[in-house]
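Notes to self, Lipoprotein-releasing ABC transporter permease subunit:
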Amino acid sequence: MLAGRYLRSRRRETFISVIAGFSFLGIMLGVATLIIVMAVMNGFRGELLSKILGINGHLLVQPIGSELDDYDAVAARLENLDGITFTLPFVEGQTLVSGPSGAFGALVRGVREGDLMRQPLVANTVMTGTLDKFDEGTGIAIGTRMAQQLGVSVGDTVTLVSPRGNVTPMGVTPRVKGYPVVAVFEIGMSEYDGTIAFMPLAEAQRYFNQEGIVTGIEVFTEDPDEVGRLKPLVEEGAGRPTYVTDWRTRNVTFFSALEVERNVMFLILMLIVIVAALNIISGMTMLVKDKGRDIAILRTMGATRGAVLRVFVITGASIGVVGTLAGFILGFVVCLNIEPIRQGISWLTRTELFSPELYFLSRLPADMDSGETAAVVIMAMVLSLLATLYPAWRAARLDPVEALRYE
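result:
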């Protein structure tokens, strides 16, 4: 009752109530911001990981010493290993792709129709056209951003220029060939939608002068985090000299940078909660000073130091607990509607807040981790509680005689 009364100010105590209100807002905004930013960082990492591992294999097998001409036998042996879902032989090469609207570099991958259909990130995201009878034709599948930049659609022809062309007495001449677009897909990652094109494996082998051989074999596993255990098994199961790399090695710099940024953002945003907790200390200290006479009267009426301590602990902790819960609700609501909020702000400000060219993804993801969110809430509540201890201890130590001496 007393704690609730101290939180409701009268006219002469308005300043103290304003400080308590700012402390409440600080805790609420700090917790909400921390939850939102961590959820966006988790979503960003998860989306990138799913996109990268949806296109690239968890393990990459490349030949050593000789060309990989027995790729069918090697792929069959690898698929029989425990923990391997499927393998994908491919031919890969850099080309210059051109269309009516321009020309730029692209990565062309030759794969079989069956293998391409086993990649849902491509097979299930075809916007126009079809991948049916992909192996029987000589067409290519491109991403939506590449189609927009080239100014082409399904049925139009794009020209590929490869430096690895025909060998003539004058040297190697570039190979120039036109291919019809048979499908346009949208993975949702701008780097892949704008730079990767898929071609039938047999046609890619002819185009890149690699008849009967492949560049490598991508291996997809049941659990991407188990690649460390599976790597030696794949090296042994290949049955020939190979060089095997996993997705963590190939993307170590990228994901390490994301992890560092995530940790730094957590520390920086945690300072907001700490500052709000310091506001609780200042507000409670002023409240104790203002209520000195009331504390003295309570003590003379028989209130113990422990009772006075509890009153002010409850007063300060109420600000922190209610602010933390309000921040959790605010953060939860924002995370559920993060993409509509982004679109609304972009529409109001006439700016693009989340450019796909800079952030790779076409939408703003948010993934709230229950353990992480619980840690943020508990940490904010503990800080709020600790912030009340010193002012409450000062109130409990107040001498009634000194407080009433000049009254």
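- Residues 66-240 form one domain.
- DSSP finds 17 helices and twelve strands in the chain.
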